[in-house]
Amino acid sequence: MRTFGEFDQNLTATYRLQFHKGFTFHDGARITGYLRDLGISHVYASPILTARAGSMHGYDVVDFGHINPELGGEAGLAVLVEALHGAGLGLIIDIVPNHMAVGGADNPCWLDLLEKGQGSRFADFFDVDFYAPATPGKVLVPFLGGPYGEVLRSGDLALKPRPENGRHAVYYHEHCFPLREESQAEIQSRGIDSFSAPDRLHALLEAQHFRLASWRTANDLINYRRFFDITSLAAIRMERAETFDIVHEVPLRLYEQGWIDGLRVDHIDGLTDPRGYCESLNKALLQRRAARPQDRRGAPYIIVENILASNERMPDWPVAGTTGYDFMNEVSAVQHDNAGAQKLGALWREISGRSEDFEDEESLARRELLARSFDGQFEAAIDALYRCRTQLGADRDLTRNSVVRAVQSVISHMRVYRSYAIGGAANPGAGPYLEAAFDAAAREAGADEDALLLVRSIMNNKSPHPDFAEAIRRFNQLTAPVAAKAVEDTAFYRYGRLLSRNDVGFNAAVFGMDFNEFHHRMADRAANLPHSLLATATHDHKRGEDVRARLAILSEIPDLWIDRCREWSALNASFREAGFHAADEQMLYQMIVGAWPLELNPAALPNLREFADRLVQWQQKALREGKLRSSWLAPNTQYEHVAETFTRGVLDNDRSRTFVASVADFVEKIASAGLANALTQTALRCLAPGVPDLYRGSELWDFTLVDPDNRRPVDFDLRVELLAEAERGDLRSGAVKQKLIQTLLQLRRREPDLFAFGDYQAITVNKTPAVEVLAFRRRHGGRTLVAAMALRVGALLFGSERLVPPPEVWGDARLNVEQAKYRNVWGEADLFPGQSLASIFAHTPVAVWIGEA
Fold first, then answer.
1. Distance, CA of 486 to CA of 414 (rounded, Å)
2. Helix (H, G, I), strand (E, B), or coil: what is residue 785?
């Protein structure tokens, strides 16, 4: 079990807040009382260091040395911390050790690099390949809006002094490109006007430590590593001690001051050595622990954004766990009925003309993205791998192109972000998932065994030679962004069997999970990761948690859904312009049904138009991410217009009254089952081993779409008002979900040891009813929690307003508990041995009890 001390009892639940100029530290301070009353123990904040002006998320840091003035700066943070501590709450902050925002004129580290090149103290801070053939000794800066020659002649490049120091730079709109020392002297002697001619300006630019280029060259020629394929986010070398110190100076100081209690680490899979990084971070925090205020000397809490494959285990790093995508996937999977997979897959194959097997879609996307978005990074990795051949005694006839084909094949078969191999004697090797990819690549027709053997040998090599460390690093830091872009940002937008199984950290190839597997995973979590976060909604989710909960119902009623889709397709033929693809139409129907607000009345035209606006925004992003009929690189605005016209047409109640009424009717028929799913999902997050995390605003019904929709302002006044009401509230308002959260989080606060250290055991039902029941107990120190939930009730509740099936459905099934009596926490009544499920689930799909072991 990974335990790290006193925080175990104090940390009971986190609440994610997204800070930006429209929601500052002062705004956060005003809701601390509400968060306390809800049952939260710690605010979990988005990045707070200085980010690009106007940033809505904070992951585009430009200055690691200061707290973002748009959020309130250090003085504003002090106000938030005082309010939190006054309410008995703590603070965990998000940090970004993988990259910085570049371009523009606001990152002094980047500007110093451009000005001084390899002589800059930041030459090794950023991950730049100064030996790339296209830009030897320089940094490629692909920020021009058009071809270099055209921009040069257009007059859009301006030579002028920098306002902060008077030194000259070339400006292009918001971008600043500082000139080297020798050029400063030349400008002083000749005058700025002498460089106004394109040829003279070109000569000046050619003498710099950077090369200006069109943004379209980035994927092919870029010689600095990026965050995924985002040119304006440049990766940094966190394995260097100086880089570590620069990035962590402020967070470590805040921890020592007692202002923060832990850290969430963004995109740890982008780092060279995640284990080594975690060890350094944990050590640095522990060294400062004794200096913290006497009442805040709990052990530091560290969680990492580590996206795991379906059966991948988190490495044994000195951290509390992950940010919760793995749990989010497990809860979603256990709410899906595998019986619907084949029919929904066949419908998708028929409509889309694509494979119903997600594995096929993933492999294809991996190959495409590797060639389309990461060519420069890929070539650098191939060069590094190929340089190792002589140390391994490879045959001289082994060609570079054969290594290219081998790596392409291996990456297409990988089902994890990366291996955790590192250079040197401590190398743990490729690991089982990369080894499986090597085996799959070897089975391909025409596989080059010698090239595969070379790459495999490198990844498993323990030689101290720096070439091996470099090759392993470049391979790992290539596969992680390829996985993210190919799966999350491509295949998930191409594959539409059921969109509720397509989300960050999910394995879309796995449709549903049986209860035994779920119980096994929760027991393992209790034993090994008892303090990992439990998330069901995040700032990165593709669909709100209650959208997924509602769409999961379709897995239980595939025939009804298929019939309705065919009916709608025929009904909407008049809105379908030539070329609009049936696959995009099918995905749209899922999103309309999944995100349809409970309060939406088809006759309320302004609300219907607002819903259409949100869907159009999602649709454009989905089309561009899918890269089949449009893309971010080359937007097909004509097709996007066709898709938007269809969406707005079918959601126009004046022109499409029959369809809108049919959708409203269908949503009404599955709404109760969807809400039942939402409540069981909520209860599992609050009761499972780990620390429940709530995404801002999701304590009420969460029918949001992908960002920026899921980052819209939250009405905290409404939430405060609903929480103050004594009753559980009506279903439509979401107050029942909020009350469930409050009840269970306050239980966690009263029973900290039980939830921090309790085991997890499945409870069986003595007779299988028509409804599936997920039940378990958690025990520690003489205290026992028992929980039972009705799952997969969609078919039984279709058309009903109840949250649970009627009593006759349950028969004489009973819960197998031996304890004499458990006190009711949520549900109908206290629990006695032999109590019937019909009485347990008379009104609610969730029942929770507490008692003595």
1. 11
2. strand
Cβ neighbour number for residue 145 with a 10 Å cutoff: 13
Q: How far is CA 67 from CA 78, 675, 737, 819, in A?
A: 11, 40, 35, 53
For residue 558, say if its preceding peptide bond is cis, omega within 30 degrees of 0.
no
Closest C-alpha among 640, 791, 667 to residue 732:
667
Pick from 425, 437, 298, 311: which is nearest to 363 by CA? 437
* CA 239/CA 278 separation, integer angstroms: 11
Pairing relationship of beta strands 533-534 and 321-322 according to DSSP bridges: unpaired
Question: Is 574 buried (19+), middle (13-18) or exposed (0-12) by CB count in 10 A?
Answer: exposed
Distance CA 469, CA 463 (A): 9
CA–CA distances in Å: residue 496 to residues 334, 504, 589: 19, 15, 11
Going by C-alpha positions, the residue among 411, 413, 404 that lies closest to residue 383 is 404
Return d(Cα 84, Cα 419) in angstroms, integer: 39
Q: Is 20 helix (H, G, I), strand (E, B) or coil?
A: strand
Tell me which DSSP letter residue 531 carries. Answer: T
C-alpha to C-alpha distance for 170 and 157, rounded to whole angstroms: 6
pLDDT in the model for residue 1: 41
Amino acid at 731: L
Torsions phi, psi of 439, nearest 5? -65, -45
CA 98 – CA 234 distance, rounded (Å): 8
Pairing outcome for strands 210-214 and 226-227:
unpaired
Average pLDDT for 57-62: 98
User: For the chain, what is the mean pLDDT?
Assistant: 95
> What is d(CA 757, CA 785) in angstroms, rounded to the nearest whole number?
12
To 10 degrees, what angle do helices 605-626 and 637-650 make?
150
Residue 371 tokens read as 């060639």
The token pair at 359 is 């594995």
User: Rounded to 5, what percent of the chain is helix, strand, coil?
Assistant: 50, 15, 40
> Is the four-CA dihedral 805, 809, 815, 820 of positive or negative sign?
positive
DSSP-assigned letters across all residues of 677-708 = HHHHHHHHHHHSSSEEEEETTTTS----BSTT
> Which residues of 280-401 form beta strands (DSSP E)?
301-304, 321-322
β strands within 236-329, DSSP E: 262-265, 301-304, 321-322
Compute the distance between CA of residue 407 and CA of residue 181 in angstroms, rounded to an integer: 42
Containing H/E element for 587? Answer: helix 582-595
pLDDT tens digits along 592-646: 999 999 988 888 778 999 999 999 999 999 999 999 999 999 999 999 999 999 9
Judge residue 727's burial from the number of C-beta atoms within 10 Å of its C-beta, 0-12 exposed, 13-18 middle, 19 or more buried.
exposed
